[in-house]
């Protein structure tokens, strides 16, 4: 005979012994008396031993049943304690969070946000990696990844935190020397600075005549750092397509200006991405909500872009 027992059968026996009655055990467990009786009978059949003596007054354990009860009650108590500990951990904003995020965004915007969250929740422990490679969330055991761009279909759980908008920028000195493009196709006559981690066909795609069209310029410089590209733009080396969260400070101080602002480009997003198949802990849920409130729905790095867009729309409506 197979010597295995379902935990629900063992729990039923423990409840009967502790309450002295099938009826009271059923009330405690929130099930019917017949189910309790069936579970105990199944346990006795699995063990090949009679565990309870039934009478009109109730039920009491046999000698074998009393010994078995003493042993399994400790195990059941341990399981309940473990379950309570897990429930407490899931509900408490405490414990480790392993997180990955893009380098430029991480340093400029996520780092201050994480520092603020950590200060508000001193029992949270961060393990943070800022890296432009796309981390393997499941393989690396991450709790959360912050990602930018269009997300590919996957089993991962994603929450959009904010829109990400890219702008074409150039220095006033460059435009004075080379002229200002008035149409995306004018890019063909200009030096462009390419971000190495995004394909040019995606970076330089505009909505032209109702469809997406890739425009190509003369590549003067390629780099995998947005900050490097911004420095090159400010030095007058060419036109770059950069996210507003990198370009906005330079736009504000006037070292670069937005070009081709009348032409639509599809926006992407800033996402919190989590592994599938398990509920997020309270600490991860709290962090995601905090980041969504801090960055969205209109990010603090976008005022220059939004102001420019409003001026353009006002000009075009006249």
UniProtKB/TrEMBL annotation:
Pfam families: HTH_1, LysR_substrate. One of its GO terms (molecular function) is DNA-binding transcription factor activity. The keyword Mitochondrion does not apply. The keyword Iron does not apply. Keywords: DNA-binding, Transcription, Transcription regulation. SUPFAM superfamilies: Periplasmic binding protein-like II (SSF53850), Winged helix' DNA-binding domain (SSF46785). One of its GO terms (biological process) is DNA-templated transcription. This is DNA-binding transcriptional LysR family regulator.
